[in-house]
Design a protein that fits this description.
The structure is a homodimer of 189-residue chains.
Chain A: E1 4-11, E2 15-17, H1 44-55, E3 57-63, H2 64-70, E4 83-87, E5 99-102, H3 105-117, E6 121-126, H4 128-136, E7 142-148, E8 156-157, E9 168-177, E10 180-188
Parallel strand pairs in A: 1-6, 1-7, 3-4, 3-6, 4-5
Antiparallel strand pairs in A: 2-8, 7-10, 9-10
Chain lengths: 189, 189
């Protein structure tokens, strides 16, 4: 059975997006630079890491805000090869192929993702709020945290709302590239 | 001339101390584990890094709270070989040998530290508030940030109160040890 992986990029000061996230500015003010390791500053190491993640992903879970603000940059289609499950309160009027809309919360999304993923991994890709819910529920098995060497000062905090420290982490690897410090944690049950 | 170095340990979620800092619990609740890389989990690499920092330090600058809560764990004497300058509003009634008390703010402390340090480095060792003041003033030349792989959830945030991102950082090195990810940034003027 595949692993349940949370994977997200955070600034040095703990933000996964800048302030004022809009459809036109989906990463918030200055937030786009968080992802330089995937784009402007991507090295062979960064690309291989991303390719490995995507290649072993059998299902993606994401929140409705990430989905909504992602639609424009993604050109109106799913950027995922795997089935993607969107946590939402209401199924959108115009569904997009490649996405499945889940109104029953994180457990239902996980159940559906598990079925779709078969033996592959489930990638909980964000936003922060969705990762927080899965962390809090003790469902994340591996945490891939990319720390971008920048400050955002304001925005969406990754580790808000998780109550007390939800898990013991075992730091399995740290890889440095110009755009990020990539940390991989195994989370103990 | 030596460099002005900020050096501090932060949790993954951005805290340099846990909540409820007291003289009995100078790192706040759970905060002591931040420094495992120096003590419980110290490797030869961690020790060498610390020895290099201390060996090249000609003057230390610290805040009054760090000084006050440190006094007990330090056994009532200065733990620094170099002259240490304490930023405070009022000179304490019982001065401690090895410390000099500065009531004129960060510029006066830096001026005195510079004189004491001669050709060696000035180590701005915290707390967060003092590092923030020096960062905001654009006076830090090198930032040594140790990220401990733990969450604190509450406490003293390192990057609060610095306004907008105060500086361009160049990530010069990243070293991983079991207790921390050690990041060294040069700050561009």
């Amino acid at each position: 059975m595949g692993k349940i992986i949370a994977e997200i990029t955070m600034s040095l000061d703990g933000f996964t997006a800048g302030p004022d996230v809009t459809n036109k500015d989906p990463m918030g003010i200055n937030g786009e630079s968080l992802h330089d390791w995937m784009f402007a500053k991507a090295t062979a190491t960064d690309k291989a890491m991303l390719a490995e993640l995507i290649g072993n992903t059998g299902a993606v879970v994401l929140g409705h805000r990430t989905y909504s603000v992602g639609m424009d940059p993604w050109g109106g289609v799913s950027p995922f090869k795997a089935a993607a499950f969107v946590l939402c309160h209401k199924v959108p009027a115009k569904p997009v192929s490649g996405f499945e809309y889940v109104t029953g919360g994180i457990d239902e999304a996980l159940m559906k993702a598990r079925k779709a993923a078969d033996q592959k991994n489930i990638w909980v890709m964000g936003g922060a709020n969705v990762i927080q819910q899965y962390l809090k529920a003790g469902l994340i098995e591996e945490f891939r945290l990319h720390i971008a060497p920048m400050l955002l000062m304001r925005g969406t905090r990754l580790f808000d709302n998780v109550g007390s420290d939800p898990a013991q982490r075992v730091k399995e690897s740290v890889t440095e590239t110009p755009g990020a410090v990539h940390m991989l944690f195994r989370i103990k049950k």
